[in-house]
Fold Sugar isomerase.
Amino acid sequence: MKLSLDQIQDQNLSQISEHARNFEFLAESLEKKGIKVEELISKLQELQIAIPSWALGTGGTRFGRFSGGGEPATLIQKIQDVGILHALNQSSNAVSLHIPWDIPSDFQAIKDSAADVGIGFDAVNSNTFQDQAEQANSYKFGSLANSDSSVRELAIAHNQEVIAIGEKLGSKALTVWLADGSSFPGQHSMRKALENTHLALQEIYQAVPEDWKLLIEYKPYEPYFYSTVIQDWGTSFLLANKLGKKAYTLVDLGHHLPNTNIEQIVSTLMTEEKLGGFHFNDSKYGDDDLTVGSIKPYQLFLIFQELVKGFEETKNPPLSWMIDASHNLKDPMEDLLQSVQAIKLAYAQALLVDSQVLQQAQEIHDITAAQEILQDAYRTDLRPLLAEAMRRAGGAINPVKTFRNLKVRETLIQERGLKSIASGL
Amino acid sequence: MKLSLDQIQDQNLSQISEHARNFEFLAESLEKKGIKVEELISKLQELQIAIPSWALGTGGTRFGRFSGGGEPATLIQKIQDVGILHALNQSSNAVSLHIPWDIPSDFQAIKDSAADVGIGFDAVNSNTFQDQAEQANSYKFGSLANSDSSVRELAIAHNQEVIAIGEKLGSKALTVWLADGSSFPGQHSMRKALENTHLALQEIYQAVPEDWKLLIEYKPYEPYFYSTVIQDWGTSFLLANKLGKKAYTLVDLGHHLPNTNIEQIVSTLMTEEKLGGFHFNDSKYGDDDLTVGSIKPYQLFLIFQELVKGFEETKNPPLSWMIDASHNLKDPMEDLLQSVQAIKLAYAQALLVDSQVLQQAQEIHDITAAQEILQDAYRTDLRPLLAEAMRRAGGAINPVKTFRNLKVRETLIQERGLKSIASGL
Amino acid sequence: MKLSLDQIQDQNLSQISEHARNFEFLAESLEKKGIKVEELISKLQELQIAIPSWALGTGGTRFGRFSGGGEPATLIQKIQDVGILHALNQSSNAVSLHIPWDIPSDFQAIKDSAADVGIGFDAVNSNTFQDQAEQANSYKFGSLANSDSSVRELAIAHNQEVIAIGEKLGSKALTVWLADGSSFPGQHSMRKALENTHLALQEIYQAVPEDWKLLIEYKPYEPYFYSTVIQDWGTSFLLANKLGKKAYTLVDLGHHLPNTNIEQIVSTLMTEEKLGGFHFNDSKYGDDDLTVGSIKPYQLFLIFQELVKGFEETKNPPLSWMIDASHNLKDPMEDLLQSVQAIKLAYAQALLVDSQVLQQAQEIHDITAAQEILQDAYRTDLRPLLAEAMRRAGGAINPVKTFRNLKVRETLIQERGLKSIASGL
Amino acid sequence: MKLSLDQIQDQNLSQISEHARNFEFLAESLEKKGIKVEELISKLQELQIAIPSWALGTGGTRFGRFSGGGEPATLIQKIQDVGILHALNQSSNAVSLHIPWDIPSDFQAIKDSAADVGIGFDAVNSNTFQDQAEQANSYKFGSLANSDSSVRELAIAHNQEVIAIGEKLGSKALTVWLADGSSFPGQHSMRKALENTHLALQEIYQAVPEDWKLLIEYKPYEPYFYSTVIQDWGTSFLLANKLGKKAYTLVDLGHHLPNTNIEQIVSTLMTEEKLGGFHFNDSKYGDDDLTVGSIKPYQLFLIFQELVKGFEETKNPPLSWMIDASHNLKDPMEDLLQSVQAIKLAYAQALLVDSQVLQQAQEIHDITAAQEILQDAYRTDLRPLLAEAMRRAGGAINPVKTFRNLKVRETLIQERGLKSIASGL
C-alpha cells in the first residue's frame, strides 16, 4: 500500500476551512508579537524524525504480546509503512534499521523500495542482547563487557557487520545500545566490564567511517537488574570522550532513574559538544516506551527549549532524531503519528520562546517572569501552525484522522492478513 | 494596602482590546464545538481556592531562608495580602489559618479585617510538629502517635483549641497534618503508633462540629525519614473510615512517592466518597512545595479530569480547595497568583472534555482517540476564557501583570519595611 | 530424579564437624543471653515456603530469554524438582501452581507424584494477563476490569475453573494477580475499571470454598505503564474488606514504588487482620524478581521483625508463604535454595529480638538502644542454627553445596536434555 | 570533659571475658579459612574517619529542630567532643570544619586543644548556601553559578579564605558542596550556570595548595527543587577533569536519585583515578542524613567491596573519609559512634572477600557462587574483630555502652547546660 499526494489532499479539503480560520488567527497573533511565522514553518518542516523499524509492529512485555493485524512481516513492508507515515506528515523521511531483525538480503530492492516512498536510512542499530538461532556463543552474560573474549569478538564482529550493512544503505550512524550488566552483586567485576566495553568499542570505533557517528546509549537497568555497564550519561560521555570525535552520547528519554532532570543532561552534553541524538518516547515509571508526549508533555517542551538554545549557543553538531517506542496497545502507525506530532509541537513551542527576553529575566533573577515566558510559549496552541507546515509540504492537516479516513490499517490487513507479525520485541 | 475595583479596571483598560480579540475567537471556536462558554465561565468563577496564611511569607529549607521584603508580620497583614490576591483574581475568597503561627487574639478585629476585603476562613490547621516556647512536653518523638500519653493529650488539646478558634471565625474544617513517624527502624512500634493515632483522632473527632470536616493528610516521609504514621492514602482512608462520616482524606500533591499515579487515588477516594480536599502545589522530587503547574501541568489536568468526572459520577461531597506551597525564591504573592491561574486553567481544560465521547472511545478500546480527546482539551489555549471569567467578576485580565503595574510589593515594603518576616516555616 | 535421605546424609558427613563447632558455639552464646535454642529450631523447621511452579524454569525479560538445561517440561517434572529442593532443605513442602501453564490432566497421577516426594499444593494462581491459543476474547485491554462484559465473564470463569482444580489438589487459596490497567491517560475509566473488578471479584469470591482464602495482589505498574487497577495495598485492602472474611491482601515484595516502607504495610495489614501472604523476591528497581535477600537483606529482616511481632500482637490468621522470582541467569533450583535460606535466616534473626527489651527502649525514646537491639539480632551469624534445623529435619547442612555435590543439574540434563524449556514466562 | 585511657580500660574490664571468648572463636574460624587476622586488625585500626564539626549538635529539618542538651557551643567544645569519640573508638583522629560555622579566632588555642585530645584537621568545608549577617550580596539565587559576577566573586573569596584557614590548621583538602541550582524551569540558564561554576572553581583551584585536594560534591536536588548545577557524579567528574589533578569527586551517600547504583559510581571513579572521598550517612528517601548503616547496611558493604578492590586494582590516591549526618533525634555523639562502627564493620566484611576466588566465579559466570562468596563475608559476625582492633588501640570494646557507662552526656550537660546549642544546621 502507498498513499498518494492526491489522496491526502482530498482529505485535507474537508478540513481546510476550519484549519484556515485557526491558522490565520494564530499567525496574526504571533506576528503581532514579532514572531516570524514563515521562519517557524520552515524550521518545523525541516525537522525529520526517523522511524525505527521495530516500532511498526506491536511490542510486548515479558508477560505477553498482543499483536494487532496487518503488521509488516518483511523489511520491505516496514519501509512501506514508513512511506505511509511520511506521506501523511512529511516528517519522517528515514527508517532506522535494527539488525538482525531486519537484515536486508537484496540491497538494491530495499533501496528501491525506500526511494519509491521518499525515505532514506538513518542510524543502524546493532543487537547483542539476544541470541540468534545459529549463534556460537551466548550473550546471556553480556556481549562487549563479557569476561569471555570469544563472546566479545562475536559482538564486535556483529557491530562491524551492521556498519557494513549501513554503508550499503547510506546510513551515517551506528547506534549501540548495550544491555550488558549484572543482576546480582558480585556477578561480574564492574571495573572489568567497563574496561572490556571500552576496548571493544574501540575496535568498533575503528570500523566507523569518518563521516559517521557512533551513538552510545545509556540506561540504568533492564534487562539486568543490579547494574548496567553504561548506566548513565556520565558513563556514556566518559566512553565517547575516550573513543574520539566520532563518538557521541545518545539520550533515550526512558533510560533514566526516577525524577532525573533530563533537560539538564541535554544542556551539559551540548555544551561539551557530545550530544549525538535522541530516542524519543515517554514514560511514567521506567523504560515504558510509550507514545511521545503522552505522559509528560511539559518535560518534552523543556528538553526542546534546551535544544533550541543549545543550537544557538554551542557548536554541538546536528543530531540524529529517532523515535524508540514499543506499541503494545495502540495501532503502531497511529502511535507513531501521534509521537511525531508531539515532538514537532514541542519544538514549535520552544522556538516561540524569546531567548533574549528570557535571558534578561534570568539575569535579574525574575523567576516569576521566566516562568511566564516559558509557559506562555508552552500554552500557546500551535497545532494550526504545525498543521500548516505539514499541509504545505504535501502532508495531511490531521495525520491521524487522515490515516483513519483513508482506511490504511484495514487495507494493510487485507493485504497482509490479520495474523501477520513483525519481527522485533 | 488594599486594592480597589477601580484600580484593577484601570489596568484592564490597556489590555482589553487584545483580550477581547482572543476571547472572541476562542469563544466562537468553542461554541462551534457545542461547548457552552457561559457555563464554563460560571463554573470557573465559582471555583475559589483558599490561601494558606503561611504561604504569604518566604518559606525556607533546612539550609536557610532568604526572606523578601514587605512580608506580613501579623495575621491582619496576612488577611490584607489575601484580600489583595482576591481583588486581583476574584478566586481566593478565603484564608486557611495555621495555629499557633496565626493565633487570633481579637477575633472581632480579625473578622472585620477579613470582611473588609471580602474573604472568609477556610480550614484551620493544627501544628503538632513543632514545640512552642512554653510547651510542657515535646513533640520531638511524635504527638498523637507518641507512646507518652501526656504528649498525646497535649496534642489532642491543641487540636480541640484549634477547632474552637475555627468556630469563632466561621471555619468549617480542621486539617490535621501529622508529621509523626520514625527516622530509624525500631524507633517506635509502628502498630502502636497507628493505634495511638487512631485513638487520639477519635477524641479530636468528637470535638469536630457536625457541619465540619476533619481532613486527614498523608505523607510518606519528611520530617521523619524511615516511616510516617499516616504514610499513604490507604492509611488516611483507613482512619477516616474508622472515625466516621465527618472524616475525609486530604490529598497534598507533593506527598507521594516517586511516580505515584495521584489521579487514580483521587478517582478511588471519590468513588468511596472520602475525598475531603486538596493541598495544591507542584514538585519534581519530594514535597518540594513549588508553584502549582510549574513542573507537571499535564498531571494537574489529569487530576482535574478525574475531579470533574467524579463530581458527575459519584456522591463525594464538595471539596476544600487549598494551596500549600512554600515560596523560597519568588515573591510569595506572585507565586500564589500563578498557582491559582494554573489550578483554574487545569479545571477549565478538564471541563472541556466531552465525557460521553471519551466514554465511547473507552468502551471500544480506541486508545488513540481517547488520547486525542484528552490532549485536544489540554492543548486548547483557554487563558482568554479564564481572563474573561476573572474580568467579569471584577478581577484583573492578567493578575500577575496587574500586581506589578500597581506596584503592590513596593507599597507593602514601604508600609512594612524590608526586613519584615512572616511567621511560619 | 529424586534425592534420598541417605544421599543427603552422606554429604552432611563431610561438613558435620565444622558445623558442629559453629553450632555449639552459637548455641552456647544464645543460651547465655537467655534465648531458647530448641524453640528457635522448632520454629525454623515449621516455616515452609511454597515454590511456584513457574520459577523452576528460566524466566525472561521482554528483551529475551536464555534458557538453561534440564528444565522441567511437564508438571510432574516440576513437582520432582520441588521434591528435590524439599529433600535438600526440608523447607518447601508445597508447590504453587499457575494455571493454565500447569493444568493437571490426570489429577491422581499428579497427586501421587507429589505425595511421593512429600509435597502438597499451596495457593493456585489464575492467569488473565495472557491470551491462550483457543481463547474467544482477548485480555489485551484487561480482564476483570474490562469494559466488555464477555471478557470479564471469561476471566471470572477461568478463576472459577482454577478454584475447581485447586480443590481437587487440596489447595486452600486462590491468588489473583490482576495485570489490568492502562498505559495511557484516558484509556479507560479508572472508576469503572475498579468497579468492574470489584463486581467480578465478588463472583469469584462466591466460588471460593469456606476454608479457602482469596489472596489479592497489588502492583503499581507493569505490564501496563500508566495505571494499574489494583495499584497499591490500599486498593487491595479496600477490595478485600468489601469482599468479606475470606479475602486478604497478598504482598509481593517487588510490587512497590521506589522507597516504599513495606514493613509498615505489613504491620498495618496485620493490625487489620487482612494480611494473607507473601510473594518473596528481591529487587533494586522495579519488579525485578531477583533472589530473595540478594539486594536488600536488612529490609527482609525488618519485614520479618514486623511479622514476628504481628503474630504476637494481632489476630491475623496464618499466612501463605510463597516465592515469586524469575530466574534469568542462575540455575533456577540454586536460586530457589538461596531464596529459602535468606527467608529463614531473616526469620531466625527476627526471632532473636527481645520484644520486651525493645519495647522498653521505645517507650523512653531510646533510639540508639533500639537500633542496637535490632542490629544485634541482624548481625548475629545464625547460619549454623539454620543448618542445624535443616539437618535435624533430614535436610542438608548446606543445600546449595549439596545440590552441586550430588550433581543434580547434570542428572536432570541427562534425563531431560539440554533444550528442555519450562512453560511460563 | 576528656576521657582518659584508664577510664576506658576500666570499662573494658567488665566486658573482657565475654569479648575474649567471642574473639578467639572468630579468630580461629577465620584463620582456618586462611585469613590473616592480624593483618585485618591492622587495616581496621588504620582506617580513621573524620567527624564533621556540624554533626556534634542536633540538626533540624525545615519543620523544626529539637535540640538535646550539652551541645558544644564553641569550636573548642566541638574539638573536645571529637576527642571523646576518638578516645572511645580510636577511629576518628580528625575533625572536618565548616566555615563560617566554626571560624577559628585563636588558631594556636584551637590547635592546642586538638593536639591535647590527639586529633587533627581534615578537609575544610566552605558554605555559600547561606547568607551571613554582614554579607554584601546574597546567595539566594546561587553563588559560584550566579549570573551576578559580584556574588561569584564573594563566593570565590570565601573559598579562598577557607583554604587559608585550613592551611593554618594543617588541613589538606577543601570540600566544596555547591547548593546552586534552580527551583523552576527557566529560572537560570543551566549552561551558563555550569560555565560560571567552572570558571569560579578554576579560580578557587588556583588557590588550592599543591599537596591539597579539591573535593567536589554532587547532589540531584535540595535546597533547589528543579535543577542543581552539579547534579550527579558525571558533572562533578567533568569539572574535576577540566580543573586538573588536584580536583576530585566526593561521594555523599545521600546525594543520589532513587535506586542509584552507588557502588558502580565508586568503581568507575576509582578506575578513572578521580574518587576523592566520602561523606558517609544513610538514607531511605533523599538526603536523609541518617546514621551510617541504619537503613541499607548491605549497600554499604558493597561499596566497601568496590573500595577494597579499587585499592588493589587502580591507582586512585588515598581517600578523605568523612561522615556527614544530621542528628535530629539521637544523641549526636552516640549517633557518630554507631556510624563509625558501621563503616568499619563494612570495611572488615569487604576485607574478608577472597578476591581471587570471586574472580574465578565471575569468569565462569557462576553467579550463585559469587553471591555465596559475598554474602558469606557479609554474614560473618565480625563485631568481635572490630572490638579487638579498637581495644588494642586503647579504645573501648563497646564504645556506645562505654559512652553511657561513663555518663558522658550527663557530664557535658552539667558543664555546658541543657540549652546549649551548636552552630550549624
